[in-house]
Design a protein that fits this description.
71 residues; mainly alpha
């Protein structure tokens, strides 16, 4: 998950409690708890480029606080 964000990708991932140590759902990562929710979130963010880019940017910045990555 971190490598996707560190390489400037937008991440929608299954809920993982350990991600809560570094990231906030809906702020710098998007997490789902069911396949239905994943589909709904994908459709939602595909229609909202500005919101998606804001979350993406915060995710990229946040990964810099976790580790250094090479893309």
């Amino acid at each position: 998950a971190l490598d996707i964000m560190a390489c400037k990708g937008f991440l929608i991932t299954n809920y993982q409690p350990e991600l809560n140590e570094y990231f906030e759902n809906g702020k710098n990562v998007v997490m789902y708890t069911s396949i239905e929710e994943a589909c709904d979130l994908a459709a939602y963010y595909l229609d909202r480029e500005k919101e998606r880019r804001e979350i993406n940017l915060l995710g990229v910045i946040s990964t810099g606080n976790v580790e250094n990555w090479e893309c």
